[in-house]
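Q: Joint fold for the lines below.
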Amino acid sequence: MAISENSIVGTIVADNYRTADVFKKHGIDFCCGGNISLSEAASQASTDTKALLHELESATAEKDLESDLLQRIELDELASLIVERHHSFIRENLVSIPPYLTKLADVHGANHPELLEVKVLFRQAAEALSSHINKEEQILFPRIKELVEANKKGIAAPRSHFGSIENPIRAMHAEHDDEGERFRTISALTNSYTVPADGCTTYRVGLAKLKAFEDDLHRHIHLENNILFPKAIELEKKSVF
Ligand SMILES: [Fe+2]
Ligand SMILES: [Fe+2]
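A: Joint structure:
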């Protein structure tokens, strides 16, 4: 796909995930706020659109086979992949990260009081994300599977107790926005996960794990907001008569 000023940011990233780094570098949110044109995103980030286009063209000189695949697979397979890859990653890290944050707050909290805030924010994220991924796995993703199966058979999908799939999707979007905002705060508090001069190995590992968590969350939300959810809304139109 040729990228132009009118291309949608989320679509550019869906076509080739190599572009995510370009958007990150310019502070452009491609996952929660990806539904805007490139020129709009450039102006919000006070970046020159032409220069941004040039960087995106360089980034997409090489195709990203995984992005191609993720756009082609059936939606129920994409939902399963999200669970296996991203929901599992969240569950593992909700166990492994808190001990680091507790230790950091105890040892370095006096000199770096922001660590106490980070610890509380991550605890809030853990609660919200646990509930969020459970809702996706128990309500939204089974409905997507039902729509895929009905569509394959060419029959009408049964009506859902929550009405249109746009209803749970709207709720998931709002929760994604909340997490995006929470991790923007964590990133700002830690100066983009930079270890201070008096930081020890635990400090370095703890911040590296937090950064990896945010990066994975961005890709996860991107797959849902920019690929899975819009396609599920289109599929519902074809499957519910
Ligand atoms: Fe998810
Ligand atoms: Fe989600």
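Q: Anything notable?
A: The longest helix spans residues 114-153. The two ends are 33 Å apart (CA to CA).
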